Amino acid sequence: MEYAFVLEKLILVTVIFLITLGIAAYSTLAERKIAGFIQGRVGPHRAGPWGMFQPLADGGKMFFKEEIIPAESNRFLFIAGPSLALLTASIGSAVIPWGRALTIGGRTIELQVTDINVGLLYIFGVVSLGVYGIMIGGWASNNKYSLMGAIRAASQNISYEIAMGLSIIALLMVTGTLSLKGIAAQQDGFWADGWFTWNVFKQPLSFLIFIVCAFAECNRTPFDLPESENELVAGYHTEYSGFKLGAFLFAEYINMFVSSAVMSTLYFGGYNFPFMHDLGLSENVVAILGVLALFAKIFFFIFFFMWIRWTIPRFRYDQLMNLGWKTLIPLAIANIVITGIWMTVKDLI
Question: Quick check: pTM over 0.70?
Answer without folding.
Answer: yes
